[in-house]
């Protein structure tokens, strides 16, 4: 939105500068007309290119923390859906019901660009990946690597641990992300130290994404209601395997994200979403206990 305002200002200034004296008082100022058309075209292009982001922005401004008051879900079901709270905040969607509020085009774009989901089979494959392994798969090896410190020793340890070269590469990437993320995580007060990183772990990242993607897949009719709740129940088990409160869950979500992509991609923004979820007195997490 700031970009739109900036472009509009610049284009308006250009329009004023581009005006030339009219040959007569009543003649048409063609230069002004052309520049106005150019301005409108630029603004329209930017709006269309960023339409999904603009929709999210206005959805968030208009609704804040979008809690559905008229729901037939039990409190425990709503609690489980709130495991996708950080993701829901990021996308400015509904929190405590299955439907997210995203339209079909938004879901399609998210499925294809971010997840490689094109049909029921690929949807179930993605959900099963989050349920069975996800980013947390290599965390035991990451923990051991943090103890070793030495690069050569870590690489040897990883090579001795895995037979599959893809596992070796993926684990080594997570180890690098872990070392690189430690200082930014402490700066953002997500963790106090390395021990805190190990204690909290990344489980919320997989649990939160599993719930959110299951909701989207149900909205898109890729899965049934029964499958939806099976995945959500699985996410609830993942979340409570090592975590005991919403604060650690929110921190775990950011730790998992760091192991997934490091801190180069909107790290401070995502950390802000998570911290707001567990600190804001009006957060949906304040309405439900972490465990039943």
Give the tags:
single chain; 292 residues; mainly alpha; 15 helices; 70% helix; globular
The helix/strand order is HHHHHHHHHHHHHHH
Report mean pLDDT, rounded to a whole number: 87
Largest sheet: none
Number of strands: 0
* Percent in strands: under 5%
Nearest-angstrom radius of gyration?
Answer: 24 Å
What class would the helix/strand composition place it in?
mainly alpha
Runs with pLDDT <50, length 5+? 6-23, 50-64
What is the first-to-last residue Cα distance?
41 Å
Portion in helices: 55-70%
Structure at a glance:
With 292 residues, the protein is mainly α. It has helices at residues 2-18, 30-49, 51-63, 75-81, 85-91, 104-115, 120-132, 139-148, 151-161, 165-187, 194-200, 203-219, 225-242, 246-261, 267-279.
Model description:
By secondary structure, the chain is mainly α. It has 15 helices and no strands. Helix 1 runs antiparallel to helix 2, helix 9 (151-161) crosses helix 10 (165-187) and helix 14 packs antiparallel against helix 15 (267-279). The relative contact order is 0.12.
Explain the layout of strands and helices.
Layout: H1 2-18, H2 30-49, H3 51-63, H4 75-81, H5 85-91, H6 104-115, H7 120-132, H8 139-148, H9 151-161, H10 165-187, H11 194-200, H12 203-219, H13 225-242, H14 246-261, H15 267-279
């Amino acid at each position: 939105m700031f970009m739109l305002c900036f472009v509009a200002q610049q284009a308006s200034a250009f329009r004023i500068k581009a005006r030339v004296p009219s040959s007569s008082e009543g003649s048409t100022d063609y230069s002004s007309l052309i520049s106005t058309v150019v301005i409108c075209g630029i603004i329209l292009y930017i709006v269309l290119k960023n339409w999904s982001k603009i929709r999210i922005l206005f959805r968030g401004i208009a609704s804040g923390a979008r809690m559905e008051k008229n729901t037939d879900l039990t409190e425990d079901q709503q609690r489980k859906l709130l495991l996708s709270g950080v993701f829901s905040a990021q996308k400015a969607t509904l929190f405590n019901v299955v439907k997210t509020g995203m339209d079909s085009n938004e879901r399609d774009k998210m499925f294809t660009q971010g997840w490689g989901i094109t049909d029921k089979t690929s949807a179930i494959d993605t959900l099963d990946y989050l349920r069975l392994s996800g980013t947390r798969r290599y965390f035991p090896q990451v923990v051991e690597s943090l103890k070793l410190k030495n690069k050569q020793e870590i690489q040897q340890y990883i090579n001795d641990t895995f037979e599959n070269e893809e596992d070796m590469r993926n684990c080594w990437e997570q180890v690098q992300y872990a070392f690189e993320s430690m200082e930014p995580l402490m700066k953002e007060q997500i963790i106090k130290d390395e021990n805190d990183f190990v204690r909290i772990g990344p489980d919320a990242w997989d649990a939160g994404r599993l719930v959110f993607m299951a909701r989207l897949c149900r909205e898109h009719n890729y899965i049934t209601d029964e499958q939806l709740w099976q995945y959500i129940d699985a996410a609830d088990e993942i979340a409570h395997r090592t975590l005991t409160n919403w604060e650690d869950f929110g921190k775990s979500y950011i730790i998992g994200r760091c192991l997934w992509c490091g801190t180069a991609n909107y790290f401070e923004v995502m950390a802000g979403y998570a911290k707001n979820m567990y600190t804001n007195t009006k957060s949906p997490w304040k309405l439900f206990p972490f465990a039943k």
